[in-house]
Amino acid sequence: MSDRIRVLVVDDSALMRKLIPQILERDKSIEVVGTAMDGSFGLRKIEDLRPDVVTLDLEMPRMDGMETLRQITRKYRVPVIIVSALSTEGATATFKALALGALDFVAKPRDAASAHMDEIAEDLIKKIKIASKTKTKNAARPALVERPKPTKPAVRSRKEPTRIVAIGVSTGGPYALQYLLSQLPGDFPGSIVIVQHMPEGFTEMFSRRLNECCAIDVKEAQSGDLLIAGRALICPGDRHIKLRRMPLASTVVLSDEDRVNGHRPSVDVLFRSVAAEFGYRAIGVLMTGMGDDGAAGMGLIKHAGGMTIAQTEETCVVFGMPKAAIERGFALRVVPLELLANALVNHCSPERIAKEEKVHLQL
Amino acid sequence: MNFFSDERAAEMRELFFESATELLQTLNEDGLELEKHPEDAEILRQVRRIVHTLKGDSAACGFQELSELAHLLEDALTPEVAALAKASLADVVLMAADTFSSMISAYRGKMQSPAGDELREQIEALTHKPAAAVPYKLQARFAWSEYENLTMEAARERGQTVYNVAFSIDPQCPMRAAAFQLVRNVLSECGQVLAIVPEQNDAPAHDVDVVEALLATTKSRVSVEKKCRIPSVVRELLLEEAAKPQDTADIQDIVEHVTTEIEQEAGPAPEVTAEETAPISTAATTANSVEQPAANFSQLENLLRVDAERIDAVLNLVGELIIAKSMLHQTVAEFDKRFPKDPLKMRFADAMAFQARVLNDLQKSVMKIRMVPVEHLFRRFPRVVRDVAKSCGKDVNLVITGQDTDLDKSILDMLAEPLAHLVRNSVDHGIELPEERLQAGKAAQGTVRLAAYHQGNQIVIEIADDGRGIDRDRLVAKAIEKGIVPQSEAGEMTEQAALDLIFHPGLSTADQVTSISGRGIGMDVVKTVLERLKGTISIKTEEAKGTTFYLRVPLTLAIIKALLFRVGERMYAVPLASVVEITRAAQSEVHRVDGHDVIRLRDEVLTLIHLRALGVQPASMKNMFVVVVSLSDRKFGLVVDRMVGEEELVIKALDDHLVATELVSGASILGDGTVVLILNISAVVSRGGRMQMTMGATA
Question: What pTM does this model have?
Answer without folding.
Answer: 0.54
